[in-house]
Amino acid sequence: MLKKIIVQYKLKKRLASPLQSGENNKKVLFLVNVDEFDFESIHEKFQELFQDKYAVRSIAFTQHKKKYKEQPDHFFHTKDFSFFGEISADKMKSIIQKKYEYVFQFFNQEHLYLNYISSNSKANLRVGFEDAHSQLTDLFLNANKNDMRLFFEEAKKYLEIIKKSA
């Protein structure tokens, strides 16, 4: 409980300052709540539409201890945060320290830990659903959360427009 309060405080403090930007380096980060979204479907639909245009890294977060214990390299849990709200997992630190062109957020605005990770990531543009955190998301897409193809079609359309205008 205290860890959660500390992470909330750090997130609030982090949101008071501008978010860090990334680079146009063809790298994409997925932040996924696997308790709410199908992790494999997200990767499949992204690859269908964007082919091999981007190098993809992922942070998949779960509250289920069984999933986490079965595949600790693929999932993250609240245990990967120290008592003082610091990210303690080296694998997660190395992912977050890189600069990304886009961060795709597959979680709702109440997800404390993924919001905290998103606020610490370096990205040019953060894309999420309409219920994403307003201070952490640059492009909101109103799409059905079960239709990843539609989500990525819309994202691709808007990202191309943004790139042309920049």
Would you summarize the structure shown here?
The chain is an alpha/beta fold. Helix content is 40%, strand content 21%.
Give your account of this protein's structure:
With 166 residues, the protein is of the alpha/beta class. The protein has a six-stranded parallel beta sheet with strand order 3-2-1-4-5-6, with helices on both faces. The chain has helices spanning 2-15, 39-50, 65-70, 90-97, 112-120, 148-165; strands spanning 27-33, 55-61, 75-76, 99-106, 122-129, 139-141. The mean pLDDT is 86. It contains six helices and six strands. It holds the Pfam family DUF6913.
Q: From the alpha-carbon coordinates, what is the Rg to the nearest angstrom? A: 15 Å
Low-pLDDT runs of 5+ residues are: none
Helix amount: 40-55%
**Distance separating the two termini:** 44 Å
3D shape: globular
Proportion of beta-strand residues: 15-25%
Order of helices and strands: HEHEHEHEHEEH
- Determine the number of helices (DSSP H or I, runs of at least 4 residues): 6
**Largest sheet: spatial strand order:** 3-2-1-4-5-6
The structure class reads alpha/beta
Number of strands: 6
Q: What summary fits the major beta sheet? A: 6 strands, parallel
Mean pLDDT value: 86
What does the oligomeric state look like here? single chain
